[in-house]
Amino acid sequence: LNYLHLSFVEKKFRESLNLSTDTNIKRRIFLRGPSIGARLILFITLSLIIMVLDTRYNKLEEVRRVISTAVYPLRAIAHAPYHFTSDVSDSLRTRKQLRIENENLKQRMQDATYDLQRVHRLETENNRLRALLETAEQQQLNLQMTEIMRVSLNPNRHHVILNQGELSDIKKGQAVIDAQGLIGQIIRTDPMQSEVVLLTDTNHATPVEINRNGLRSIAYGTGEIQSLNLPYFPQNADLIEGDILITSGLGGRFPAGIPVAEIIKIDRDTTKNFLTVKAIPMAALEQSRQVAIVHESAQRIAQRRNRSGSDGIALANKANLESANASDIKGIEKSLDGQLEQTDVSQDNE
Amino acid sequence: MNLKIVASIILALLFSIIPLPDAITHFRPLFLPLTCIYWAVYHSNHFGIGKAWIAGIILDALHGTILGQTALGLTFVIGGCHFYQRRFQLSPIFQQILFVLFLCSLYQFILIWIDSINERPLTVSARAGAIFISALLWPPLIIIMQRLFFQGNRLPNA
How distant, in Å, are the alpha carbons of A125, A173, A251, B119 from that of A187? Predict the structure, then answer.
């Protein structure tokens, strides 16, 4: 109303003076809008409200989805030079180089085929034994290859963007692996792209077990690309440097048996309750360009449906991704406490 | 004019997501705040807090940070620009660099503050480095912007 009134007054004024219609001058003289102070306060409040909604209540996933879909072209442009240079370097290789590479690949392929045959035999044998023991069969991994986009995100968060999204059937919560091991999990998707949180992010925790003896724990990200923290191993835990950690499959987020990290340093300071254990991720988090997304096999989905009578699914749906991990962790902590008690008892017996 | 602003902001956003080697990615200059400061100082009647805020939200979505984090920082920066706009325009380039240094540190301080509330790694020293690099980029930025969008004429306080 105020605006209308002002513009009306101004029109009259201009008519009476026969002024030229320079819109800029008009705006500067007559219409100032709210003062700078008022605008400042308005936008500060707006930012604060949005931040609280985003961090505490996760209400803005839709907004984020819309914006990140809209800015997809920007990411594609930023990514393009790397795509292009890799294409060019591929096409500029000499015949000799290609022949040598082909030779090597054939050799490796042959080795891998022999290994694969052995693996198939072991797998069937393993499943038969498991059936005898009446434990769950191990499921096969259903993989989908995709590419990491070369765009820079905030360096204080270990997130990466993948080149495919919902259109390629990628869903929130799926595990992402490379040839060496686990990379992380999908936390956000939109039609063309998806965002992955790496397992070294400070907000990420991975349920793991020791490959050698099945000892379970949780690996926390430290914010450094070459380091994971394992804070929950008791002093008498059977650990040696060089042990391989694999996903335990607890919590249902990651399939069991994917290599995660290698223990490089164990600090047995007996004044503390727990060991200080450092591990480095197996996956080449900095170098990987081609990664694979793990899809749940049909069998596993069926298993989960059977279980969904309990509150498992509802809980996983309700909690957001990171807090879902937190609930996994609580379960594991409980089991760890159980282990601790057991070891205490056994010590007493001794 | 609006087209020029949008084009420059898109360029700034692009420069903020172009991949850099890991060693120097923390020292990436603050392209978006610099661009916004330029428009807010030299063309303040076309560029206000609202536009800067929207650009901030877009950068948040691009960088995967909390929505509103960069936007809040930019709000303060552009608010400061508007308060001292006249003085800024008339001051010699050295004082302008100092003032840009102040605005960029304000911006970084807000980002670090929000990161610390959310228990994120802070990397304060690297971010301080980014502030100094950005301030030193101010004179070339003015020249580039004039060349790109005004064909070299209308140089500020020539």
Answer: 36, 6, 16, 19
Q: Is A211 helix (H, G, I), strand (E, B) or coil?
A: coil
CA distance A235 to A232: 9
Candidate from A64, A151, A202 with C-beta closest to B61? A64
Q: Which positions ≥6 away from A261 have C-beta within 8 Å?
A: A181, A208, A219, A228, A244, A245, A279, A280, A281, A282
Please tell me the distance from the alpha carbon of residue B13 to that of residue B18, in angstroms, as a whole number. 9
- Spatial neighbors of A343 by CB under 8 A, at least 6 apart, are A234, A236
Rounded to a whole number of angstroms, the CA Rg of chain B reads 15
Residues 52-91 of B with CB under 8 A from A: 53, 56-58, 61-69, 71-72, 75-76, 79, 82-83
Does residue A77 carry a pLDDT above 50? Answer: yes
3-state SS of B74-105 is: HHHHHHHHHHCHHHHHHCCHHHHHHHHHHHHH
| Eight-state DSSP code of residue A53 | I
d(CA A48, CA B68): 7
Read off the pLDDT of residues A91-127 as tens digits, 9 standing for 90 and up.
Answer: 777 788 889 999 999 999 999 999 999 988 988 888 8
What CA–CA distance (Å, rounded) separates A227 from A278?
7
In angstroms, rounded to a whole number, what is the distance separating the alpha carbons of residues A258 and A245? 9
Which residue in chain A has the smallest CA separation from B19?
A152
Chain A nearest-CA residue for B71: A47
What six digits make up the tokens of A98?
């290609």
Angstrom distances, CA of residue A150 to CA of A78, A173, A182, B78: 7, 22, 19, 31
Residue reference for tokens 């070369």:
A150
Yes or no, beta carbons of B61 and A71 under 8 Å apart: yes
Task: Give the separation between CA A37 and CA A327, rounded to whole angstroms.
Answer: 45
Going by pLDDT thresholds of 50, 70 and 90, the confidence category of residue B35 is very high
CB B105 within 8 A of CB B131: yes
Structure tokens at B14: 């692009």
Partners of residue A246 on adjacent β-strands: A209, A259
Q: What ipTM goes with this model?
A: 0.86
Report the C-alpha gap between A223 and A200 in whole angstroms.
Answer: 6
Residue ranges of alpha helices (H) inside A244-320 are 298-307, 312-318
Whether residues A74 and B17 touch (CB distance < 8 A) is answered with yes
Contact between A230 and A219 under an 8 Å Cβ cutoff? The reply is: yes
Q: How far apart are CA A107 and CA A129, in angstroms?
A: 33
% of chain A with per-residue pLDDT over 90 = 8
Q: What is the DSSP letter of B26?
A: G
Q: How far apart are CA A202 and CA A229, in angstroms?
A: 10
